[in-house]
Amino acid sequence: xxxxxxxxxxxxxxxALDFEGNYKRxxxxxxxxxxxxARLRIGPELEIPGYGCYDHFLESDTVLHSWExxxxxxxxxxxxxILIDTGMPILHRNTRYNCRVLIHNGKIVLIRPKLYLANDGxxxxxxxxxxxxxxxxxxxxxxxxxxxxLTGQRTVPMGDALxxxxxxxxxxxxxxxxxxxxxxxxxxxxxxxxxxxxSSGSHHELRKLLRRVELxxxxxxxxxxIYLYSNQRGCDGDRLYYDGxxxxxxxxSILAMSEQFAIGEVDVxxxxxxxxxxxxxxxxxxxxxxxxxxxxxxxxxxxxxxSLSAERSEFDYSAVPTMPIDPVRLHEPAEExxxxxxxxxxxxxxxxxxxxxxxxxxxxxxxxxxxxxxHSMCRLVVSACQRGDAQTVAxxxxxxxxxxxxxxxxxxxxxxxxxxxYMGTQNSTEETQGRARRLACAIGxxxxxxxxxxxxxxxxxxxxxxxxxxxxxxVHGGSHAENLGLQNIxxxxxxxxxxxxxxxxxxxxxxxxxxxxxxxxxVDESLRGYFTKYDCSSADLNPIGSISKADxxxxxxxxRVHMELPVLDDxxxxxxxxELVPYSVDYTQSDEEEMGMTYAELSEYGRLRKISxxxxxxxxxxxxxxxxxxxxxxxxxxxxxxxxxxxxxINRHKMTTITPAYHADTYSPDDNRFDLxxxxxxxxxTWQFRCIDEAVAKIEDRNxxxxx
Length: 708
Known about the structure:
With 708 residues, the chain is of the alpha/beta class. It is 42% helix and 16% strand.
């Protein structure tokens, strides 16, 4: 017969260590799931303390407060009648585990510790947790005394087990385990688990969601079954943005999926699934049945007197199963840039209790992209307010300082939340100043035009007084050191002025809170070190810090159309320039000319260095083949590789002070969490460059012999 079961997977905007807020969001999601007649609810990984606690996981307080929050959930009789999956750290025999805790009607059903921990890229789970090394094994866990008094349970099962309900079987898989070669869902499915639940703390990267979706789709297509995936959403206190996309799949089809980017705090995804369709799907696959019959590892079972579906006598013939979504639309990278950093900025702004953002607007494409992302944030906020999102309305009113305020347009809200400034000098052009002013007008930011030549002149005069010598730009006959020093004065003064204006402009406008300063250095410039240490790239936050110049240009092209900002055409046509030296007939400052490499080449170097894990020699060998159609000789390619690694190594120290940036790409050189490397290098790379030279000599010798 048909067995319909209604299930719920949740997206919660949790915040590390916000136990009160996290508890309320968990409870609200359970109540919403119950209201929609769900019998099973799952939530994100470590949802009670928040995934991003990091070294706070090492503190006993974090475990203690997690138990206190769980105790509240167990004591709440409004939450009865639904199987609840939640997550927290648990200390078992003096070892800390990342666990799922399944509860039902005020009792703990199973504690399921994570088997395989995420420990690459931004993840450091081995620093805080141990993996449960015993497959298909359970032990007795002694619960805290307060929990025992509440539930009447002195011990509960803990380990890798299945839950047998009266009508189905549930297996648990945690985040990273899905991505491993021997994923637990395979053995669990072969052993009869019809529903797999996966609670995740997976952060956003451009183009990453497709991989996640395909892995889950493949899992249910090969094994059959229902798969519930839950992910956190939002900024929980770090560089990462967790991008939701909780989903329910059945036998290879996506039935329901939440938004990837949104600013709401609780999102519950409901699907009505057919358990009998799982049984038919699996039984029709002879090879799957053969493997299941020969399975040598059998999982222990925890029995639960509870049904997910109605009995035949109580079957509701008006119930409608959820139909597959076809096609499933995923965002293009330009849309991801438009939405991900915007949501991250909003979470940071409302949780930091600041009054908005300040952005130095240079007239170039990087600061332009940053300004447009803030405007995108305002569009999302206005839309949420118009939908009646009470939390967003309350946040906006608190930030703006007006208890009755209701934004009417994104431009109006941008005027409240974003201050921009063009900080010109005698080296600046009217073109960049005009572009900055027109963009500010188009998005609605509060804009200040200023000239800072008097401040620059005062600093130079002080140096002349100290040293007795007048530095000159190269175009006026000065040395490289003089030229660089004069450029850095301008760049660093912009940082000082940015913080001054961020602190005092709100006061001058009659507002109470100061502003967060935004930086706008892209990932390629950070990789090459093409920025001044402690210039206006030094800020509180950088929404584009791990996005390439190429992707930013695609984003501006997208925003030109979809955000109806024709002024962006001017930015796309402009040649990138720092405008830190005087213009002359013989020389116009250009970023790519000064760097000695193009932005396209930098992206190639960055991906090979980080994603392909190439040193100088390996990068040279790869580029021989990747650039075979560019008409470059081996010697020319070698020179480009050496130039990159020289500048990368002498500038790596700048990454130790880089502004916290939204993590968006896998080749980010962020030194603080993601890309852990030395910052003092031998920039000559003697051994490595010699290997390249030897390879070049062999190639040239082979070519000469071929010509003979």
